[in-house]
Fold these 3 entries.
Entry 1:
Amino acid sequence: MAEDKIIEKLKDTYCRLKPSEINGVGVFAIRNIPKNKDPFPGILDQGWREIKVSDLKNLDKEILKMIDDFFVIEKDNTVLIPELGLNGMDISFFVNHSERPNLKMMEDGSFLTLRKIKKGEELMVCYGTYDWKYARSAPLLEKNGQRYRKK
């Protein structure tokens, strides 16, 4: 990639990692982020592979814990993993959960701000809108374009 393209991509930087009062490490705005903006442009550029959880059983238990912590294990016991494995995790993996989110995950895996996010503010998403393990905390869920409430 040419240097000028890298510099252009750097101009699209909105966030950094910092200690979070919510949970360990969080993602914080380094400048104001407009409503309806993807604060992580380019995160979908890497390849992802669906893997059966049973195929991961021989991995170190700490690696398995990280997979459970950072990725969505589907009800059919599959998980999407970046081609670079855990080394392929980007800053978006550190967005913390909130029942009053300022960010949402789109169907394609990208993110979109729900409102203007001010410089210094932590970015948060409701995990229950895309991870069934957290569905109880999501007042309104969406699947395949249909909105419903968890019973």
Entry 2:
Amino acid sequence: MNLAQTSSYAISLQPPRDVLNFLRARGFTYNTDGKNVELLCSEASIPGSSLATHDQVGDYYGAREQFAYRRIYDDTFDVQFYVDRNYNTIRFFETWMDYIVGQTGTTNEYKGDTAIYRMSYPKGANGGYKSNIFMTKFEKEITGPALYYTYVGAFPKAMQKAAVSYGPSDILRVNVQFSYIRHVVDTNISSANTDARTSVRNQFTAASLTEQFAAAAEIDAQLNKGRGVPDGTLFSGTTLETSNSIT
């Protein structure tokens, strides 16, 4: 019996065009820098869901039945990333969240005691700030069975603070929480590739998955090296307030 392993996966973020243009204006090119951010994903999770049920009592003597009437999806997706020496990981998510809250001016405009924000539309003419996120769960032979997850309508909701300190060195990591509507899972690569919103870069190819392994091997080598970092400092985290709409 061959058992699935936890260490073989790939993630593709693919922000919408509005965010891509804003990233480019801030000096961040997704097709190069963003690709590296995705390869630095060190931890993710397979999504879960549950069924909302209604209790029916009395149809059968002494028995209570349950009937499903709605599927309830997880509404957040937690991902951990290694931070590269150019800090592209932090820059990427800070800039995406800047666009969401309308913080599109110079940084000096927001260093005073007061600042004005105007939230961006979630679905604009060029995509707004929500987009689909894709994750592939595969095994090391790559060509075997795989699961292709699509997180629908996702955006970064929170970036947690990351501690740095003197002492034994480690790779800097940042945790990002995404909000999304629902997930869809494909077991066939052809159906996974038919989504029109994968136009930025096709994640579900053997070549891209092989590249993921090469990046993981390089990171593993760096994890065994010591690097000094400043003491007693926390990179501040960011959280976006959200409202829920349930129908």
Entry 3:
Amino acid sequence: MAHNRIRTDLAVIIFCFLFFSISSFAVAETAPNQTSDAVSSEKKSDTDIVLKIKDATYPLSQATIKKIATSKEFLIFNPAYKSEIENTNTCHYEKNILCDLFSFSKQANHIQKISQISLDEKPLAEFVNDLAVQFNKAPENAKFQADENGKISAFSPSADGVNLNTEKATQILTDYLKNNSNVKEIELPFDVTKPEISTDSANDLGINSLIGEGKSNFSGSPKNRIFNIKVAIKKFDGLIIKPGEEFSFVKILGEVDGEHGYLPELVIKQNKTELDFGGGICQVSTTTFRAAVYSGLKITARRNHAYPVAYYNPQGFDSTVYVPYPDLKFINNTPANILIQVKIVGTELTFQFYGTDDGRKTTVTGPTILERSPDGGLKTTLGQEVTTATGETLLKDTFNSKYESASKFPHPGAVITEKPTDWSAKQWSAYKKEHNI
């Protein structure tokens, strides 16, 4: 009899142990971790979520959500919950031997369906970064113009820059996905960046006079070349150069291709004259170089063209550029801001630099041809001397240029008849064979 009682007590103990183990197991399944959360399961909308950033809207599609978030559903026993689901068999969701042995029908009315959301951080980060690329906009400085009396006014207003706050946006989207929310629209935060030069700063620029200008003539240019010149000058017209700032022509010019509005035209590239986007931009860089020299500014980077080009007469006063190198650079060594103003009259291109007259005097000598080769090659020199109002020397620079013969850089369709000096005999032989010379 005592023996039977012991066996009965032992069975009760085992039963209680297994029951609480199963209960603990079910509850443990609901515990959240770093990448997942358990929430009550409710049906979400199948429509896209609208993401609002400032005045713009972007879709968060259900397809994208499925890439980022995955959901696992299961049942737990919750005494405080009254079930309304049809299938309350917990073992249907949890395939477990102990679950099958110790399921109780009286628990059926307290079975709750739980969804466990797991997030993949990589596609979420990619989505947010792509969103930032679409939304972000750099601040734009105001562009100004000067009248005949040197009075400055803005013709292109400044604009604030905006950037999606990716850290906060990621957290907001994470919370939304984990909480299984049914909201239709989510507002994401952004940061505002002010421009360096605002529209209302015209009176603070210290600009009161014309300090120098450069000119060039593009007469005889084909229509694509003229078109490219007009596209490029828009980048520089109205630009402000701050005191002490180093101007970079290539940086301001930006990308040069069809997508940015340029047409194919002849350029000097890799020892050849060939078609490429932006042919004619060197007319703009050459004119800029001349204005900087006459304004008494310090030139820090400049390269002449490979061979003499008639558009840049007089030879020795040109500046070739090509993205990303070579570049034209100079420093605003005046006490105030410099305004660049550009105009075209007929086929004459003019760059005017407006600033503050600090009394400096700029003397330009040349360009002078030092040597002329029978094949058309040239050597030239150009001098720039700048003195202060008190007569002290501020700058004294010399720009020497060496130009090769144009015959070494054949144009498309043009056939050269003399071997370029830097070609090997094998190269020249192959060229003659190709062109039946």
